[in-house]
């Protein structure tokens, strides 16, 4: 098909990523390998700061820095004034969540795939504010139950807060369908898209979310310490502000101040301009390739990996659900996940350990301890998958 990345394109993209010559990287859900242009952008900016001064370099690159907001808005089909650049998805999520004016007795609805940081936020709100939360469990096939969500809504429901792609599973939840339910009942909708942006095509207009939290280091291939928060224009004035400085205000007098009239009210002034520029370059890189095209390749590689893993005696794949993503989780009989990770690292193959605490409700429900998480990206290859599986087969033989 015309939209699928060709092998020639994949090889070119690998040539533009120095790290692919040194390691087989299946830890993209942790932190992807950066394109060379992103690395060079950050380093070159830092060199200029060192030579010319921080404020002076910022002024020189003011248009490029400003354009980062335009690029992010294009990526998720938002408005520029709905974007705030923050350090990571957790910061963005907490700014949005804690900006909501919760009252005792308010209810929050979440999913069993919710990330640990968000779960802590829900528990903290329950302890300190008297807020209750309900968990919508997946069905027996691993799918989010939309009818159960409808049934759980009451006149006390203040927020639907869910994670699109979980940390320790390969499934996805139907975020656009959830958005339609939220709009139907006029309920605020907060989406954790930490694993999603750069991974799957996302359109906040189609999803219908009010707030969306994103990190840069994962599938977006941006530097660590970058991320952004989307806040729909119509609700910005409804969220409380916690961190304020001169940047977050339109004006300030000795007796009063007024917040900015855009999402940058949720930022603070002092942040790394080099990393912001690197984030913008990573977004531009993704847009130039096309997330729709890279998503097709990720799906192909993940499906290939799951099938090959299922054919290895002693390896169990744990992903289930009708819609799967680029995260592949598995375990090796008789071997701790950390041991598998370390053995693979000896062969220059990167995977990660999916900790039980990271997706606590899901892992407890399915009686899963820590699992091995291999997350593919478009620059991975079938040959790399074969090497991974060959090493795993040898590990199984040795452990028997």
Automatic annotation (TrEMBL):
The keyword Lyase applies. One of its GO terms (molecular function) is lyase activity. The keyword Lyase applies. Its cofactor is pyridoxal 5'-phosphate. Residues 25-388 form the Aminotransferase class V domain. It comes from the Bacteria. Keywords: Lyase, Pyridoxal phosphate. InterPro entries: Aminotrans_V_dom, Aminotrans_V_PyrdxlP_BS, PyrdxlP-dep_Trfase, PyrdxlP-dep_Trfase_major, PyrdxlP-dep_Trfase_small. PROSITE patterns: AA_TRANSFER_CLASS_5 (PS00595). Gene3D superfamilies: Aspartate Aminotransferase, domain 1, Type I PLP-dependent aspartate aminotransferase-like (Major domain). Coiled coil: none annotated. Belongs to the class-V pyridoxal-phosphate-dependent aminotransferase family. This is Selenocysteine lyase/Cysteine desulfurase. The lineage of its organism: Bacteria, Pseudomonadati, Bacteroidota, Sphingobacteriia, Sphingobacteriales.
């Amino acid at each position: 098909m015309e939209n699928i990345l060709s092998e020639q394109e994949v090889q070119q993209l690998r040539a533009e990523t120095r790290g692919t010559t040194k390691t087989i990287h299946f830890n993209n859900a942790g932190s992807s390998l950066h394109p060379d242009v992103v690395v060079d952008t950050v380093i070159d900016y830092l060199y200029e700061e060192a030579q010319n001064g921080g404020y002076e370099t910022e002024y020189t690159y003011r248009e490029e820095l400003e354009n980062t907001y335009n690029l992010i808005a294009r990526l998720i089909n938002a408005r520029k004034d709905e974007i705030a650049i923050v350090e990571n998805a957790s910061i963005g999520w907490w700014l949005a969540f804690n900006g909501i004016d919760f009252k005792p007795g308010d209810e929050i609805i979440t999913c069993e795939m919710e990330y640990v940081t968000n779960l802590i936020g829900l528990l903290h709100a329950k302890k300190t504010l008297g807020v209750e939360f309900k968990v919508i469990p997946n069905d027996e096939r691993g799918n989010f139950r939309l009818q159960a969500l409808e049934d759980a809504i009451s006149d006390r429901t203040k927020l639907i807060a869910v994670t699109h792609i979980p940390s320790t599973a390969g499934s996805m939840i139907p975020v656009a369908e959830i958005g339609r339910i939220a709009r139907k009942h006029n309920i605020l909708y907060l989406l954790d898209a930490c694993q999603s942006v750069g991974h799957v095509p996302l359109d906040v207009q189609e999803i219908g979310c009010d707030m969306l939290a994103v990190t840069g280091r994962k599938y977006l291939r941006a530097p660590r310490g970058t991320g952004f928060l989307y806040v729909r224009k119509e609700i910005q004035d409804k969220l409380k502000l916690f961190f304020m400085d001169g940047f977050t205000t339109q004006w300030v007098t000795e007796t009063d101040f007024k917040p900015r009239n855009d999402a940058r009210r949720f930022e603070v002034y002092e942040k790394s301009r080099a990393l912001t520029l690197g984030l913008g370059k990573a977004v531009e890189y993704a847009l130039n390739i096309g997330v729709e095209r890279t998503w097709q390749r990720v799906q192909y590689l993940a499906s290939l990996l799951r099938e090959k893993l299922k054919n290895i005696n002693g390896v169990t794949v744990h992903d289930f659900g009708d819609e799967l993503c680029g995260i592949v989780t598995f375990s090796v009989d008789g071997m701790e996940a950390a041991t598998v990770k370390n053995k693979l690292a000896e062969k220059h193959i990167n995977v990660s350990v999916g900790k039980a605490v990271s997706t606590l409700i899901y892992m407890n429900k399915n009686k899963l301890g820590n699992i091995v998480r291999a997350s593919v990206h478009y620059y991975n290859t079938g040959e790399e998958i074969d090497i991974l599986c060959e090493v795993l087969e040898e590990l199984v033989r040795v452990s028997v």
